[in-house]
Write a structure and sequence with these properties.
The chain is mostly helical. It has helices spanning about 5-20, 25-40, 45-60, 65-80, 80-95, 100-115, 120-135, 140-150, 160-170, 175-180, 180-200, 205, 220-245, 250-265, 270-305, 305-315, 320-335, 340-355, 365-375, 385-395, 400-425, 430. The protein is globular, with a radius of gyration of 22 Å.
């Protein structure tokens, strides 16, 4: 077999192994190692490239953003800031048709800006928002669909773990990726709110619900006390990066310290809770480091196989332009999204398409936003919509099936696709803050 044929078979083998349940980094590392060995018929070369991949991953200074932002997200969740933001948003939207759903989107957008985790958002708001919506007569499918749809905001609004992973794979600045995610994240949140209003107007049976009569508005002092901690964290992290006062690593450290102080002042942080957050941070950070190491050896294998160049020559030889390449790319991510998680898609697909995008003079930061948004649609689609599974497991309500969660999330997946098309058509939307 030629190197190109070995490279092609290896990519297919990786996808198959992950789908069969093999741990993603193991699948990437083992298949890439064996492929390099077969292509060069040199075990020592394959071993040396593996050592280089491990060394490069561990020595990256910007990798420190992963444990710092992970720790900050865990602390913020323990501090109960998600509940507070939801109460404030709910107070303002309750009397609007679909208002609690709009409040959930708004709260998720703010919560995402301090956690960067769609899984955390899905877990928190499944407990907080869904019972409220069911209490006021909302359609169960709509209730779980709103939480599933808005939970993906945690993967595009910084600090996002997926943006960090992409920055390593594409060798882009973590800070620039964070700033580029702000406008698309807010666009998606606004699009969700607009879609809820539209569904309430033209598809009321899907939304359901009744006005929250007798509900008392929060006072300004209550609103301030519940929002200032979260807003201060957003100001410290994103403000520090945007103004250039802090690097992403320093912003993560400052945000972690501020989050810890807030949790302690609110009496939400015990020594046991602090230790649990540290242990979980270690587990998550180790898993992400393993992913990045595996992606590094995988990228080297693709380079040796010449597969990206072969793909580029094939597309150029057939006179495929920008539109065709992007259509192929998005369709590939949507198909893989039904089988694989977001990190797997980024690690497998991005190294193949980067050699196509760079010669076209397109921004790799913009391409990262497109990649993350496109891959995130997979969080809402069967059979492996992770956010949907998390919501189902968190609710543990026999009245709501997994099918209900997926069907409820379907309209929001469609909204994501529309926003993705807009981001592709107008790259300036992703680069607005950077320019």
């Amino acid at each position: 077999m030629s190197p190109v044929e070995i490279g092609t078979v290896s990519v297919l083998a990786i996808v198959a192994l992950i789908y069969l349940g093999v741990y993603i980094p193991i699948a990437l590392t083992v298949v890439s190692f064996v492929s390099i060995w077969l292509m060069r018929d040199n075990f020592d070369l394959a071993m040396n490239l593996l050592k280089i991949a491990v060394g490069d991953s561990v020595m990256e200074y910007t990798f420190a953003t992963v444990p710092l932002f992970t720790f900050m997200g865990l602390i913020v969740s323990k501090a109960g800031l998600g509940n507070d933001i939801y109460e404030v948003m709910s107070s303002g939207f309750r009397r609007v048709k679909g208002g609690i759903g709009m409040a959930t989107v708004g709260a998720n957008a703010v919560f995402a800006a301090v956690t960067g985790s769609s899984i955390a958002s899905a877990s928190v708001f499944a407990k907080v928002s869904v019972p409220q919506m069911l209490h006021y007569g909302y359609n169960p499918r709509f209730a779980v669909g709103v939480v599933a749809g808005s939970s993906v905001l945690g993967m595009i609004i910084p600090p996002s773990a997926m943006l960090i992973i992409y920055s390593f794979v594409a060798e882009q600045s973590v800070g620039e990726m964070f700033l580029a995610g702000v406008v698309p994240g807010l666009m998606l949140a606004v699009a969700y709110v607009a879609s809820i209003w539209t569904m309430g107007k033209f598809w009321p049976s899907f939304v359901g619900g009744r006005p929250a009569d007798g509900y008392e508005w929060l006072s300004w002092s209550e609103i301030a006390s519940k929002t200032l901690p979260t807003l201060s964290l957003i100001f410290i992290v994103l403000g520090g990066i945007y103004t250039g006062w802090m690097t992403p690593v320093e912003a993560g450290a400052a945000g972690s310290l501020a989050g810890l102080l807030i949790a302690m002042l609110r009496g939400r942080m015990s020594l046991k809770g602090f230790w649990e957050a540290l242990i979980e941070t270690g587990h998550i950070s180790a898993a992400i480091l393993f992913l990045i190491t595996a992606a590094s050896i995988y990228s080297r294998m693709l380079g040796l196989a010449g597969l990206p160049n072969e793909l580029s020559d094939m597309l150029v030889g057939n006179d495929y332009g920008f539109v065709t390449i992007m259509v192929v790319y998005i369709l590939l991510m949507l198909v893989l999204g039904t089988l694989l998680d977001t990190a797997s898609i980024i690690l497998i697909v991005v190294p193949l398409f980067l050699p196509l995008i760079e010669p076209m003079g397109l921004s790799l930061v913009w391409f990262g936003i497109i990649t993350v948004v496109g891959a995130e649609i997979g969080l809402l689609t069967p059979p492996l919509g992770i956010s949907c599974f998390v919501i189902k497991a968190t609710l543990n309500d026999s009245r709501i099936s997994l099918k209900d969660v997926f069907m409820g999330a379907l309209p929001f997946a469609a909204v994501m696709l529309i926003v993705l098309i807009l981001l592709i058509r107008f790259p300036a939307l992703s680069l607005a803050i950077l320019n």
